[in-house]
Amino acid sequence: MEKGEKFGGVQRVELKQARPICLFLCGDVMTGRGIDQVLPHPGNPVLYESDVRDARAYVRLAEHLHGPIARPVDYAYVWGDALAELQRAAPDVRIINLETAITASEDYWPGKGINYRMHPSNISCLTVAHIDCCCLANNHVLDWGYPGLEETLRTLDAAGVGHAGAGRNAGEAASPAVLEVAAEGDVLVFALGSPTSGIPTEWGATEDRPGVNLLHELSEEAAQSVARRLHHAKKPGDVTVASIHWGPNWGYEVPDEQVQFAHWLIEGGVDIVHGHSSHHIKAVEVYQEHLILYGCGDFLNDYEGIGGYERFRGDLALMYLVKVDPHEGKLVEARLIPFQSRRFRLTRISKADAKWLYDLLNTLGAPFATHVELNDDNSMTVR
Question: Which residues neighbour 101 within 8 Å (Cβ) at sequence distance 6 or greater?
Fold first, then answer.
């Protein structure tokens, strides 16, 4: 090790030939509604949806399709086989998009239609997987009003789980989560939400109003604004992640404006673009040796048994294990581990389904000159 120059008055330690930093990334983690009802401390099951008024109906739908769920399940249950993979990979940081409020609030957002919440007493559902950061700039964090957001923030803070993308004011919502990596630089997570994902514009945080870090447009000016915040917070050796909730739930198309915005972010100093909102897996791109995930798909949810979009295979989930050079932020390795959701639990995938995902990712990646290789254990490696 060699001492580096002083940065901001603080002596930084620079590691020559530092080991890559490994990140676990995934898409939406929705542990509310039906999943909350099978956990040890289910909250009030009342819903305000047009067709469903009781969260336990989503449990019955899943059971009708794949068999009974013994209740209550333990906190590790929903992660299933993914926990063993995480233990083997031992990533330095674990980052999810948490698409539910953590609250017992009854102050539901009127007219929203879908309102997700997990009872705060079920927070161990996240800590059992050692989640380091929850991205909150999405279209469900305010489902139970400002009291629900406040309780979500308090609960995460009390559990020692970092968060980004929502806060008590605009400054807090825009601030990155700073995740320390032993003997290395930090991982900085900036979370942003686009109205294209269904985030109401009135949810945007202001100087005197809580809310989300809203990305009003995917413009070059907006990308430069993110880059300025990044450069203000970043120190030598830090890895930066821009986690963006954008686009509709269904459909493989990646709009040109998303591609251009992701490229602007990389050119502006972002190391990884972590996109989510789609309920299924979308394209991966390696741009200037940096990783862009346009849509990670859902990782955990209670959508099992809901029909209408079966062709997108929303039951298939990917764990993204990404290794990055901490000096330049360039991609060293990206390994994708597939799972299938059954009875609200992630299980190993079949060879046939792994081949289906492999073909899909290569078809979607072709316009970006990015492809994956299928390994013997059904995992995939980005090339």
Answer: 32, 116, 117, 118, 140, 141, 142, 143, 144, 148, 149, 151, 152
The Cα 271–Cα 75 span in angstroms is: 33
What span, in angstroms and rounded, lies between the C-alpha atoms of 372 and 383? 6
DSSP 124-173: HHHHTTT--EEE--SSSTTTTHHHHHHHHHHHHHHHT-EEESEESSHHHH
Q: Which residues contact 57 (CB under 8 A, 6 or more apart)?
A: 34
Structure tokens that stand for 110 in this block: 């009127």
pLDDT at 247: 98
Q: What angle do CA 91, 93, 99 make, to 5 degrees?
A: 115
27-62 residue pLDDT tens: 999 999 999 999 999 999 999 999 999 999 999 999
What's the Cα-to-Cα distance from 226 to each of 57, 83, 219, rounded to whole Å? 41, 33, 11
The CA distance from 175 to 163, in Å, is: 9
Helix H or strand E encompassing 354: helix 351-365
Cα 179 from Cα 177, distance rounded (Å):
6
Closest to 187 measured CA to CA, from 195, 200, 173, 177:
177
Report domain extents, the chain: 16-382
- The answer to whether the beta carbons of residues 13 and 1 sit under 8 Å apart is yes
pLDDT band at 14 (very low <50, low <70, confident <90, very high): very low
Does the global pTM surpass 0.90?
Answer: yes
* Residue range 16-382, CATH number: 3.60.21.10
**Which pLDDT score is estimated for 17?**
55
Residue 234 DSSP class: -
